[in-house]
Amino acid sequence: MNMSLSRVMTLAVVCALAIPSLAAPSFAQQNATPSAPLAQPAPAQSPAALPQAAAPAAPADAAAMPAEREAKTLKAATAELKELSPWTMFKSADVVVKAVMIGLAFASLVTWTIFIAKMLELAVVQRKVRSALAKIADARSLAEAQFALGAKGSVLASFLAAAMREARLSAGISSDAGIKERAASSFAEIVRAEARRVRLGMGLLATIGATSPFVGLFGTVWGIMNSFIGISKSQTTNLAVVAPGIAEALLATAFGLAAAIPAVVIYNMFSRQIAGYRTLLGDTSAEVLRIVGRDLDRSASPRARAHLSAAE
Known about the structure:
Blueprint: H1 2-35, H2 49-54, H3 57-82, H4 86-91, H5 95-135, H6 142-149, H7 155-169, H8 176-198, H9 202-234, H10 239-298, H11 302-311
Helix pairs in contact: 3-10, 5-9, 5-10, 6-7, 7-8, 7-10, 8-10, 9-10
């Protein structure tokens, strides 16, 4: 009994000593967990999840390329705008727009050539007619007027020659009124011929003034059409990219107006001057008719008329 009691006591002491030694590692692990946590492996991703994670990277790269291309286009367009001038716009324009602008420039050159030539011509012929009228102002007969005028080629000389010819052809006719009517008819023919001569080039001025704006508009429409095609190719509507093409198109309209406006103004100016010149020719023919009337009255007798015909 005593032996069993002592064995029980011994086992109890051994167990009491063994329990703290077994609990010590667990307590140490609990104390070490907050300070140095063990690294846990990352959860493995499934194959279906990998494309979803990498998917956003592809659109970002794809969007970056158009943005970079647009930035380069804008930079080039900005540099072109800094150097934009009529000459550079003409050089970079389409072939059709260039042809339109060259044609309008040639039309403008023709307009100013006609202006210079017609201005000199009208000034010279009006001065000649006024000078001739001043010379025959005191003439009493056709022969005296022809002598005073001399052999100078002018419209007045044509009037005098027509009157002398009609007087010679009408010799022996008793009706003086018929002679004056026939002479007036000849004078009207001379006036019409002279008016046609001085109106040379006026039809061309009228054509240039009427058609140049429409020709320039055609070039503008063609250029704007090409600009819209360029917009669709560049896939941008930025004004810096569109502006050069539109400016080139509008330059054709400017050429058309530059050719049309002077042509219309010059045409109206010359129309008034030609009308004034025709009035001056009318006064000249009336003066010659008065001289013819004096000759007819002076040669009322057959003897005087025969003498006049012999002199002719």
